[in-house]
Amino acid sequence: MKWIVGLGNPGTAYANTRHNVGFMVIDELARRHGADVGNNKCKALTGEARIGGEKVALLKPMTYMNLSGESVRAFMDYYKVKLEDLIVVYDDLDTEVGRIRLRYQGSAGGHNGIKSIIQHTGTQTFNRVRIGISRPKPGVVISDYVLSPFAKAEQAEVRRMVEEACDAIEHAIGHPFEQTMAKFNTAGGTGSAQA
Q: Helix, strand, coil: what percent of the chain each, to 5?
């Protein structure tokens, strides 16, 4: 079974913040496939969708970002799912708003949710879809920035990124992740390959 974990923070106060784009992607996948991500299991809100004929679990950890790995580990142990079937979706400061980047391994890059998943799984090798939130202007505290909502001027780009991330995940369900990376690691969704 494939399982998609979108990272974010629980509660309405965080709903539309930059740090919660992972949740936004899970919500859009659920909407597209008529799934209800409302079951409270393994320290997460979970649901199940059929994507391309495959059963896919959708998760939104409810642990707060820096403890996301607890939920991932609990789900993994309970359902005996494989790490190679996991895709983690999260916000990325080093990718600009409007772009997504796919990776299958690497360090946490300062992201506390990814750091927690690496700690709880014991590996840096798992599939990821990074959603661009851009870096703040100099002098802005990172923690304040990631917990702030997207600017009005960014909304259209955010919507497009969420759609593109869902497209990439849907593609990855039926294709090797490397192939999905080659297709979706493009400059701002224009279809041109990234050098």
A: 40, 25, 35
Q: Which residue positions form the known binding site for tRNA?
A: 14, 64, 66, 112
Percent of the chain with pLDDT over 90: 94
Q: Checking DSSP bridges between strand 100-105 and strand 2-6, what pairing results, if any?
A: unpaired
Which single residue is written with the structure tokens 């642990």? 63
175 is an active site residue: no
Which residues are known binding-site members? 14, 64, 66, 112
Q: Which of 19, 111, 120, 175 is catalytic?
A: 19
Contact residues for 107 (Cβ-Cβ < 8 A; gap 6+): 118, 124
Contact partners, residue 160, CB within 8 Å, separation at least 6: 98, 189
- To the question of pTM greater than 0.85 for the whole model, the response is yes
pLDDT digits (tens, 9 = 90+) for 141-194: 999 999 999 999 999 999 999 999 999 999 999 999 999 999 999 644 443 333
**Domains in the chain: boundaries:** 2-184
Each residue of 49-89: pLDDT tens digit? 999 999 999 999 999 999 999 999 999 999 999 999 999 99
CATH topology of domain 2-184: Rossmann fold (3.40.50)
